[in-house]
Amino acid sequence: MKSRARRGLRFAATASGSAIVAFIVAVFLGAAGPLAFGLHSYVLRTGSMRPTMNPGDVEVVQSISPLAARIGEIVAFRDPQLQGALVSHRVRAVERVGNRVDVITQGDANTGREHWSVPAGGTIGRVVYRIPKLGYAVVWLGSAPGRAVFIILPALLLMASLLRRLWRERSGGQLVTWHERHT
Questions:
Q1: Contacts with 26 (C-beta within 8 Å, 6 or more apart), sequence order
Q2: pLDDT at residue 132, rounded to an integer
Q3: Is residue 100 part of a domain?
Q4: What share of the chain is helix, strand, coil (3-state, %, to 5)?
Q5: What CA–CA distance (Å, rounded) separates 106 from 92?
Q6: 69 and 101 fall within a common domain
Q7: Among residues 94, 40, 89, which one has the least CA distance to residue 62?
Q8: What are the tens digits of pLDDT across the range 40-84?
Q9: How many domains does one find in the chain?
Q10: Which domain range does residue 64 map to?
């Protein structure tokens, strides 16, 4: 009975550890993976694009020329009226005026529009796709508790595993070091 309980606990520990690793890998690939293809990812923090995109979604953005933006597309830009904060809204109008491009955008859930300009040779972002709710995990992993789970917990588990191997019990209950076992 004891061995069955130990196997059950070992299975539960392995399954839990595998689930945590899979979760962290999924978050990493979803948020950082696009960098390998020249894309950038950002976490949406507001509901201005509801219902198309929601707070907590990760948006993956491709750099484009402002002249490549088309009406109806969602673009990411630095809003000068919000101290350069990154904003993602739908394009309503694009017009080249001399050496700059004037753009009008609007969030799907907003009533007002933004009027902004960017140099014709500059870049803005085109939202290529989104990953729903993944941003919550990205933000949490960037917090102090998230970093603790991401860095400290695996280190503690590794240390516990190594100590367990070092101090395995013999059938008589005597603790034996790795060195004693192998000499």
A1: 134
A2: 93
A3: yes
A4: 45, 30, 30
A5: 7
A6: yes
A7: 40
A8: 999 998 999 999 999 999 999 999 999 999 999 999 999 888 888
A9: 2
A10: 34-134
Long-range contacts of 156-164 (CB under 8 A, 24+ apart): 157/17
**For residues 178 and 173, what is the distance between their CA atoms, to the nearest angstrom?**
15
C-alpha to C-alpha distances, 129 to 58, 78, 149, nearest whole angstrom = 9, 19, 29
Same domain, 110 and 147: no
For tokens 């109008």, name the residue: 93
Residue 72 per-residue DSSP state:
T
The pTM score is: 0.70
What pLDDT, in 10s, does the model give residues 93-106?
A: 999 999 999 999 99
Report which secondary-structure segment, H or E, holds 21: helix 2-32
Domain membership of residue 166 (yes or no) is yes
